[in-house]
Amino acid sequence: MKPPIGCVLFDLDGVLADYDRGVRVATLARHLDRSAEAVHAAIYASGIEDAADAGRLDTPAYLSALGRELDCRVDADAWVDARRSATHVRQPMLALAGALRERGITVAVLSNNGSLMAERWPAIAPALFPLFEGRAFCSARLGAAKPVPAAYLRCLQTLAMLPATTLFVDDNAANIDGAREAGLAGHRFVDRPTLVGALAGFGLD
Q1: What's the CA gap between 4 and 202, in Å, rounded?
Q2: Alpha-carbon gap, residue 55 to 39, rounded angstroms
Q3: pLDDT score recorded for residue 205
Q4: Looking at the structure, do residues 106 and 179 belong to the same domain, yes or no?
Q5: What is the DSSP letter of 161?
Q6: Domain that holds residue 79
Q7: How far is 132 from 120, CA to CA, in rounded Å?
Q8: In whole angstroms, what is the distance from residue 86 CA to residue 36 CA?
Q9: Beta carbons of 114 and 53 less than 8 angstroms apart
Q10: Are both 38 and 117 inside the same structural domain?
Q11: What is the C-alpha separation between 18 and 12, in angstroms, rounded?
Q12: Domain match, 166 and 113 both
């Protein structure tokens, strides 16, 4: 018999929040007076973002690397404004997480993001707090990014939760596979009603 679920670990973008990469790029491009194409390439094609997500670049090194790529100074506040503009918390999902918390279930967030996101969570997605205060994790701070099993295990170690009693919810199939490899239960997010049905299957109805 499987142990009961005591923790639900949510992905951020595409699950708890809508995220528009194009808005992020366009907003940062306006701040920096650079083309959207150049900003997109610097963030997503240079390897800088992946290195930051994996914890190989701290905030100063990350901003410096973007600056070198774009031949300008990249200010942390400009980056935060761009990320905030592109991130919109889904209130029905927040309500669902809150209902789980009221039942005594630990709820937390695990997102592939760099140290700057970790430092500025409340400014970027204020609606997540205080519900996820102290339980919002960026991969950079864990030294591993999803779907590497260490990312989930280090997160759960901090939460003092066991993989076997944790359900991970993500819209990315590869990340679900990584969670299952680490010993967690997994649900690939499609929409809220489907998730509610999956939660019922785990006795969380």
Answers
A1: 7
A2: 21
A3: 81
A4: yes
A5: -
A6: 21-85
A7: 14
A8: 14
A9: yes
A10: no
A11: 8
A12: yes
Cα(107)–Cα(20) distance, integer angstroms: 24
Say which residues have a Cβ less than 8 Å from residue 100's Cβ, sequence separation at least 6: 8, 107, 199, 204
Domain identity same for 40 and 115: no
- pLDDT of residue 1 exceeding 80: no
- The token pair that represents 200 in the structure block: 């019922």
Question: Is 1 within the bounds of a domain?
Answer: no
Are 127 and 103 within 8 A, CB to CB?
no
Residue 25 pairs in a beta bridge with: none
The CATH number of whichever domain residue 136 belongs to comes to 3.40.50.1000
Tokens found for residue 176: 């679900």
- pTM confidence score: 0.95
* Structure-token pair, residue 151: 């990312």
pLDDT tops 80 at residue 11: yes
**Do 172 and 142 sit in the same domain of this protein?**
yes
Rounded distance, CA 2 to CA 161, Å? 15
For residue 53, which of 162, 173, 141, 156 has the smallest C-alpha distance? Answer: 141
pLDDT for the residue numbered 199: 96
Give the whole-angstrom CA distance, residue 169 versus residue 182.
14
Residues 115 and 195 in one domain: yes
> Model confidence over 62-116: pLDDT tens digits?
999 999 999 999 999 999 999 999 999 999 999 999 999 999 999 999 999 999 9
| φ, ψ of residue 46 in degrees (nearest 5) | -90, -15
Q: Rounded to whole angstroms, how far apart are CA atoms 24 and 2?
A: 42
User: Same domain for 98 and 157?
Assistant: yes
